[in-house]
């Protein structure tokens, strides 16, 4: 007998942003989550920073921030009240799964996936991007950042974008993804759903609103599974649920740049806007990334670092540690245009702003910010979740621990791809054994490309 033909492989990856392992017991009571969790699942450690864009980029590159270059959600732009996010796929400094898939002739799609705008390799991209000015400006920039085929889906489903105080993409992203699965049946589709994360930010980690968000997402999972059945691709599709971080309850907001302004390292004009600066703290959730102006001299550098040491020693300033860039690179594979990382006392959220009060307590009458947050060091608090089911995946297997970079390497393996210089490994324990076939002389052999 000749070697058996390699089976068709398809992959559907669904990010349920901010889902953690402690959510699994409740998720298993929901019909469509339960169907996926019947496969293999366990905890996945985020990269630093434990925020959305760096981790979702790791899930498509297998690299930490040192390798892919997406060091935060937002780009460092001192003085900008609303910095630009890392919308653009061209900011990624290494190959993505979409690049590798294109080279091998696989068809790809991404809906709402971070850092996929203006993608050079996706066949269908409907990226996550918005304009705070409103729905129409958001639709304009969404169409601009999408691929030509993606624009067709944007126009078809634009009415499903929700907008009250801000964008709501869950219903829209699901409708687009289900339509793509039925109509184009791509080999690879990545989808990002943020409802659970949004509910946690607004109401806390474990609230009625979070429960309702899970129930809503479960209904959307049902639509996606039905789309696979309608397309006739369900039997050949491996399905993953991934996440990017847990959440920590917020106790206070720290505006470190207001402290820098008091010490003269940030200078303001007559209107209270930033006119120049020597040092800047780029807020990244529960940590702050300390940045020094490229033209600052060594004396300024020493003064800034001395001030940070004072913050750590001062019990009135909720900064418990400073981690130099060299340590962050060695311990977490993190790099960026910074001196290092300010780690807040538990529950301290960093903001980029430089005006107003520098510290606002959760029980202060002026507090109107997020009730839970992330951006902490990866090993802290509850972990994200990784779950898979499908023809390549073992049933009932529990993963002890993996990382988000491992997820990407595993996805590549399932598609017959290899990530160069990956920082992760294949999560072998969830994979079914390769099929056995008869070779040309009748001897049993394991297919090398199964």
UniProtKB/TrEMBL annotation:
Pfam families: Phosphodiest
UniProt GO molecular function: hydrolase activity
Species, as recorded: Brachybacterium paraconglomeratum
CDD domains: Enpp (cd16018)
InterPro entries to which the protein is assigned, alphabetical: Alkaline_phosphatase_core_sf, Phosphodiest/P_Trfase
Lineage of source species: Bacteria, Bacillati, Actinomycetota, Actinomycetes, Micrococcales
Protein's name according to its UniProt entry: Alkaline phosphatase family protein
């Amino acid at each position: 007998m000749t070697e058996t033909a390699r089976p068709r492989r398809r992959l559907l990856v669904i990010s349920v942003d901010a889902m953690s392992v402690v959510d699994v017991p409740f998720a298993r009571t929901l019909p469509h989550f339960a169907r996926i969790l019947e496969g293999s699942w366990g905890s996945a450690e985020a990269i630093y920073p434990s925020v959305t864009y760096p981790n979702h980029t790791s899930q498509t590159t297998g690299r930490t921030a040192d390798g892919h270059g997406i060091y935060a959600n937002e780009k460092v732009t001192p003085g900008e009240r609303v910095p630009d996010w890392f919308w653009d796929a061209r900011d990624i400094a290494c190959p993505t799964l979409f690049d590798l898939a294109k080279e091998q002739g696989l068809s790809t799609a991404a809906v709402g996936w971070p850092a996929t705008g203006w993608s050079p390799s996706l066949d269908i991209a409907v990226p996550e991007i918005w304009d705070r000015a409103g729905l129409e400006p958001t639709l304009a920039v969404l169409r601009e950042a999408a691929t030509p085929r993606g624009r067709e889906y944007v126009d078809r489903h634009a009415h499903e974008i929700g907008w009250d105080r801000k964008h709501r993409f869950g219903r829209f992203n699901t409708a687009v993804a289900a339509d793509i699965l039925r109509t184009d049946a791509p080999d690879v589709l990545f989808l990002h759903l943020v409802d659970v994360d949004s509910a946690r930010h607004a109401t806390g980690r474990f609230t009625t609103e979070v429960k309702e968000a899970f129930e809503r997402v479960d209904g959307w999972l049902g639509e996606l599974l039905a789309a696979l059945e309608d397309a006739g691709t369900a039997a050949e599709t491996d399905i993953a649920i991934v996440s990017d971080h847990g959440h920590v309850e917020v106790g206070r907001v720290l505006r470190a740049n207001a402290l820098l302004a008091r010490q003269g390292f940030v200078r303001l004009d007559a209107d209270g806007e930033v006119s120049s600066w020597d040092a800047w703290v780029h807020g990244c959730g529960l940590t702050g990334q300390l940045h020094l102006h490229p033209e600052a001299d060594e004396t300024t550098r020493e003064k800034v670092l001395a001030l940070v040491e004072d913050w750590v020693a001062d019990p009135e300033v909720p900064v418990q540690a400073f981690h130099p860039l060299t340590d962050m690179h060695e311990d977490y594979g993190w790099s960026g245009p910074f001196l290092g990382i300010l780690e807040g006392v538990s529950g301290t959220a960093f903001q980029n702003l430089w005006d107003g009060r520098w510290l606002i307590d959760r029980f202060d009458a002026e507090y109107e910010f997020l009730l839970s947050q992330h951006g902490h060091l990866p090993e802290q608090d509850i972990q994200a979740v990784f779950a898979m089911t499908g023809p390549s995946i073992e049933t009932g297997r529990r993963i002890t621990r993996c990382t988000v970079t491992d997820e990407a390497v595993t996805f590549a393996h399932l598609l017959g791809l290899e990530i160069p210089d990956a920082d992760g490994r294949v999560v072998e324990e969830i994979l079914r054994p390769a099929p056995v076939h008869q070779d040309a002389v009748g001897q049993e052999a394991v297919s090398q490309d199964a």
